[in-house]
Design a protein that fits this description.
Keywords: Membrane, Transmembrane, Transmembrane helix. The chain has 451 residues and is of the alpha/beta class. 48% of the residues lie in helices and 10% in strands.
Length: 451
């Protein structure tokens, strides 16, 4: 009996021992798997971190050194100074019309606020603007509307009429070129230098189809081989089939990459300007899809062609869109400068546009010029203008004329008064000294009496 119990008890011990070993093996296996999972997670995390660091490094390297990996297709030689004749003609950009025959700006008659700003800018920066009234499309007589005008809303029709009036102004004048601006533009404070450099490049334009004529060499600072010269577009896209047609030049007044609208950065990159060259270079390319008519120059031949194709023959879209169609059809010829030389001045409100209604998130007046802004300019003319005209008169007066106790007194009277004050102070000092001496004597007498 005892032996059977002993055997049974021994069997139970063996069974428990086996179960314990199995549990021990399972636990060891679980710990090993856990450690392996942890090591695998750590390795995965390290791999991800290394991949992110590598990606960031490659991205930064590409941005910083893309100009070394992708050299510029062509850059105007800046080491050799331009010829005297070129410099002489380019210096016309220092005049009040920037070397064009004239400068006109379009503004609705009721926008006296914008007209004030434009005339102020002209005065501060030595420019001469001609005001061309904007047109309310609803007031255009039915008979005067162009063919297919029904595609346009009333504000778009008025915009078309105002630009055609600007082209007519050129044809009615003796100008060969006209710079046309809208009334909300901003530009670089060094505008004369910016356009003088552009003139130098246009005189050596390597993408023009014909050599400059003798007349152009003598009297056309920007050449005359174009109908429109875009210097204030909102955006643009180049002809993908002819990205090789580009004239690149260095400009010290180009905005930094950070201050350049992202679309224009992409446009520059499409022309081979990458990395550190963004923020140093401008590109001149054949116009293909320039949106907006914020700032552009037009030649006499260009005005004739545009009036022919966008008035005489009719119009089928907003004026900037119809000009794009004519450019892509090859009916007119143009160049586009990127980044543009003019930018829109914004105050974030209904005042920003005379062609659009008030959005739900806009106030009627916006933030005003004090908080206005523009982009893609190195030194905003509007912001710099505030500094130029800044004055602290009384601070200047204080430096030149030190403050006097009585401004009504003459210098001689002030001198006499100062002398009297000095004598009075001396007398007071003598009295104080005598009183101190008297107190010392009295103290000495009291001390003797006490002794």
């Amino acid at each position: 009996m005892a032996s059977r119990v002993s055997e049974k008890f021994s069997g139970l011990l063996d069974s428990a021992s086996v179960r314990y070993r199995r549990l021990e093996w399972a636990a060891s296996d679980a710990v090993a798997r856990l450690n392996w999972s942890r090591r695998r997670m750590v390795a995965t995390g390290v791999t991800i971190v290394l991949a992110l660091v590598s990606f960031a490094f490659l991205t930064i390297s590409y941005v910083m050194f893309a100009d070394l990996v992708h050299p510029l297709p062509y850059v105007m030689d800046t080491a050799t100074p331009p010829a005297p004749a070129t410099r002489r003609l380019a210096s016309h950009a220092q005049n009040e019309t920037l070397g064009f025959g004239g400068i006109a700006y379009l503004s609705m008659p009721y926008r006296s606020d914008r007209q004030d700003a434009m005339e102020l800018l002209a005065s501060v920066y030595g420019l001469n603007f001609t005001y061309i009234p904007g047109v309310d499309g609803a007031t255009i007589a039915e008979k005067a509307k162009p063919l297919h005008h029904y595609w346009l809303r009333a504000p778009e029709l008025g915009c078309w009429r105002a630009h055609v009036d600007a082209w007519r102004y050129l044809l009615e004048s003796d100008f060969e070129t006209l710079l046309v601006l809208e009334d909300d533009v901003d530009f670089d404070a060094n505008v004369h230098d910016v356009f003088e450099l552009l003139s130098t490049q246009m005189q050596h334009n390597r993408i023009r189809t014909t050599p400059p004529t003798e007349h152009e060499r003598k009297a056309a600072p920007y050449g005359l081989d174009w109908d429109v010269l875009y210097v204030g577009q909102c955006s643009d896209h180049s002809n993908n089939d002819r990205l090789d047609l580009v004239h690149i030049y260095e400009d010290p007044n180009v905005p930094s990459r950070r201050d350049t609208f992202s679309h224009f950065v992409g446009q520059l990159e499409s022309h081979g300007i990458r990395g550190r060259n963004v923020g140093k270079m401008r590109a001149i390319a054949p116009s293909w899809s320039p949106v907006c008519t914020m700032g552009y120059a037009i030649s006499r031949k260009g005005a004739e062609r545009l009036i022919l194709d966008l008035s005489y023959r009719g119009i089928t879209a907003a004026i900037d869109i119809d000009i794009i169609r004519k450019l892509q059809q090859g009916i007119i010829r143009g160049y586009t400068v990127t980044p543009p030389l003019f930018s829109a001045w914004r105050v974030d409100g209904a005042k920003d546009s005379d062609n659009q209604g008030l959005e739900n998130d806009q106030t009627a007046l916006g933030s005003g010029n004090r908080r206005g802004y523009s982009h893609s300019l190195k030194k905003s003319a509007r912001k710099e203008m505030v500094k130029i005209l800044g004055l602290d008169n009384w601070d200047d007066v204080a430096h030149v004329f030190p403050e006097r106790p009585n401004p009504t007194m003459t210098a001689e009277q002030e001198a006499e008064e100062a002398e009297e004050v000095r004598k009075a102070e001396m007398e007071k000092a003598q009295i104080d000294e005598a009183w101190i001496k008297r107190k010392q004597e009295m103290a000495k007498v009291m001390e003797e009496w006490g002794g």
